[in-house]
Design goal:
By secondary structure, this protein is α+β, with helices and mostly antiparallel strands. The chain has 14 helices and 20 strands. Helix 1 runs parallel beside helix 4 and helix 1 packs parallel to helix 9. It is globular and about 60 Å long. The structure holds flavin-adenine dinucleotide. Flavin-adenine dinucleotide (FAD) binds next to helix 1, strand 2, strand 8, helix 8 and helix 9. This is NAD(P)/FAD-dependent oxidoreductase.
């Protein structure tokens, strides 16, 4: 065991979006931060369609400029398609104030841009270090990890932020995992050279297509700036053939959605399709004595509204200010200042996700006689402004959606 006695103010597990944002903000506040990341960047990650609300947190972390300069695909909205009908949202017409545009990003590149910028600002990142255990000692938090040669290390800090995403390091080590409120779903996805020739296709928007027969099966098409796209389908396990090859199965599902199949008729698969199963996750608590869970390490709902990275960045931004206070010796009420405000937006998205899968939100989105004020409020949430309580669909989401459901049914 190589004993590293040097102690940091804060150790962060994972250098994904939430790890980069929390460590940058803490570093700017003068704290010493060590990020332990098991992979080497660039590395593939899923979650490629950002929401405009995320830009606020990148800006707060001084990470916006490198993202803007990286040449990612501009994004200003979302198109939903059900059979031959389309409905679209332009995020610039949203109810809430703030950013109305963002990007569609290959996460390998995006995550590297963020992590490199954080490093240039002074954050120390150790790549190839996998966190294996943590001990909350009287004087410090001890973080144990191994490098790729199998060497073991211990690092010490006053505070630990878990930004390990689907790695869910602290939820597993501290037995915090609880079942998700959503049923298990699976997703098949890949990158394609899309070769889309349809002039009406808007590369500035994510395209969400609903399966012609099953309302809980839907596809994403996320165009990138280099002529490629991310394409994927979300499917309940009952409709998946476990013995079938992933690529063939994805192609089969695409062929069942006629308009999507026509749009991508000339596409070439760049990689074999990958599958993720049962990604929705929950925890019994988001914080504890000298630790906090960020992003996917805390809770993951569902991919349908592209909320994952935005929630991850929101959690990182919210937690950073509180970690700085705690390290400075202040008492922090994490329940009222972290858990409750973060859950407000997560619960808004949860409400939207539930009503997407029961079909009622799909009916609302495709309802023909749209009321502009309401449309702008819904648009706000689709743009990620799920914490803006001035929006009635945030303040009282469930009741408002139920009323709308009746009106649109
Ligand atoms: C099918 C699907 C589609 C999605 N689509 C979207 C989308 O379009 N838009 C969107 O915003 N979100 C989407 N998401 C969600 C998105 O992937 C996540 O919400 C987002 O990546 C979370 O960021 P994070 O910083 O919390 O974690 P991550 O991005 O997962 O980063 C965690 C990092 O921690 C590292 N790590 C893990 N374990 C350890 C360990 N033991 N020691 C050290 N390091 C470790 C990992 O290597 C990784 O680099 C999707 C999710 C799924 C499943």
């Amino acid at each position: 065991m190589k004993n590293q006695q040097h102690a940091f103010d804060v150790i962060v597990i994972g250098a994904g979006p939430s790890g980069a944002v929390v460590s940058s903000i803490l570093n700017q506040q003068g704290l010493s931060v060590l990020v332990l990341e098991k992979a080497h960047f660039p590395r593939f990650s899923i979650g490629e369609s950002l929401l405009p609300q995320a830009m606020t947190y990148l800006e707060a972390a001084n990470l916006l400029q490198p993202v803007v300069e990286a040449g990612f695909q501009y994004k200003n909205g979302a198109v939903f398609r059900r059979a031959s009908r389309c409905t679209q949202f332009d995020f610039r017409e949203k109810f809430s104030s703030g950013w109305g545009t963002t990007y569609q990003v290959k996460r390998a590149a995006f995550d590297k841009v963020l992590a490199d910028a954080a490093e240039q600002q002074g954050v120390q990142i150790k790549y190839g270090y996998t966190v294996t255990a943590v001990n909350f000692l009287a004087e410090a938090v001890e973080v144990c990890c191994v490098d790729e040669q199998g060497n073991a290390y211990r690092f010490y800090s006053q505070f630990l932020a878990d930004a390990s995403g689907f790695g869910r390091v602290l939820p597993r080590l501290l037995d915090l995992e609880t079942p998700s409120c959503f049923p298990v779903r699976q997703s098949l996805f890949t990158h394609i050279k899309d070769n889309i020739v349809d002039e009406n296709f808007d590369r500035n928007k994510i395209l969400i297509t609903i399966h012609p027969k099953y309302q809980d099966v839907w596809y994403w098409l996320i165009p990138f700036s280099d002529g490629t796209s991310s394409i994927g389908v979300v499917v309940p396990p009952a409709l998946m053939d476990e013995d079938e090859d992933n690529t063939h199965q994805l192609q089969q599902f695409i062929s069942e959605a006629t308009e999507l199949a026509e749009l991508t008729a000339n596409a070439e698969f760049i990689n074999p399709a990958q599958k993720i199963v049962g990604y929705s996750a929950n925890v019994s608590k988001l914080w504890g004595d000298r630790f906090v869970l960020l992003g996917n390490a805390a809770e993951f709902l569902d991919p349908v509204f592209s909320s994952g990275v935005t929630i991850a960045l929101k959690s990182a931004h919210l937690a950073a200010g509180l970690i700085a206070k705690q390290v400075a010796g202040e008492t922090v009420d994490w329940q009222t200042r972290y858990h409750q405000p973060l859950m407000k937006g997560i619960d808004t998205f949860r409400c939207f996700v539930e009503s997407w899968y029961d079909g009622s939100l799909q009916n609302i989105l495709f309802f023909r006689q749209k009321e502009q004020g309401v449309e702008r409020m819904i648009c706000s949430i689709l743009a990620g402004y799920a914490w803006d309580e001035a929006n009635p669909y945030v303040a009282d989401c469930s009741r408002r959606l139920n009323v709308l459901k009746e009106l649109c049914s």
